[in-house]
Amino acid sequence: MSSRERVLGRVRRALADVPKDDTPYEQAVVREYLREHGERSVAETVDLLAENLADYRAVVHRCPQGELTAVIGRLLAERGARTVVVPPGLDVGWLAATDAEQVPDAGSDTPDGLDRVDSVVTACALAIAETGTIVLDGSPDQGRRRITLVPDHHICVVRVPDQVVSSVPQALERLDPARPLTWISGPSATSDIELDRVEGVHGPRTLEVVLVGE
């Protein structure tokens, strides 16, 4: 018997005495918590997202749609990026202003190979203003989870206001729980017992978020 079968067996035994007409879980649990904290305009929500992203030490840039290609090209140049990982569904026009070699996201990628890549550029599923969190769901314009965890520099594009929500409850309503969700609140960091902060341990050392809108 596998571990999976053992766990599922325990779940079935625990549920054996539950009546078939019992109240469904989604109705039985009272959800009276606040859906968002305070009332904000769309512009204020985007401003809060930018503020909280910066508080988590992400580098935030804001630009209109027409300048996105130039901004991404400038950020890669400033980083000195010679190679950049590209998800299969990323808008090819976003990288038109860079001479960096574009490395396609492939199932054959190895951690060692990705570690030698300078940067990665992705879109996102959405962003949460109150927590300063970017959520990726593995869609074609975001690629596999590994490409956003190994390279040291991640440029993530957020379309505002369409991809910005105020709170976690609002985010969960829009996300597909069956997809591989990655929640990012600033660059990867950890602290040792003396609270010395070290960045880049579990993911990119530098996270740059481009908030692009009309």
What this model shows, in words?
This protein has 214 residues and is α/β, with parallel strands linked by helices. The chain has one domain (39-213): NagB/RpiA/CoA transferase-like (Rossmann fold). It contains six helices and twelve strands. It has helices spanning 3-14, 25-28, 42-55, 68-79, 111-115, 168-174; strands at 59-64, 83-86, 101-104, 119-122, 126-128, 133-136, 153-159, 164-165, 182-184, 189-191, 197-199, 206-213. A six-stranded parallel sheet has the order 1-12-7-4-2-3, sandwiched between helices. Strand 5 and strand 6 (133-136) form a beta hairpin. The longest helix has 14 residues, at 42-55. The chain is globular. The mean pLDDT is 91. This is LUD domain-containing protein.
Let me know the CATH homologous superfamily: NagB/RpiA/CoA transferase-like
Helix count from the secondary structure assignment: 6
Corresponding CATH architecture: 3-Layer(aba) Sandwich
Relative helix content: 25-40%
Strand content of the residues, in percent?
15-25%
The tally of beta strands, per DSSP, is: 12
Overall average pLDDT:
91
Examine the coordinates and then state which fold CATH places here, giving the name of the CATH topology. Answer: Rossmann fold
Domain unit count: 1
What coarse outline follows from CA principal-axis ratios? globular
Low-confidence segments, given as residue ranges, are: none
CATH class designation = Alpha Beta
Largest sheet: 6 strands, parallel
Helix and strand run: HHHEHEEHEEEEEHEEEE
Structural class category: alpha/beta
Strand order in the sheet with the most strands: 1-12-7-4-2-3
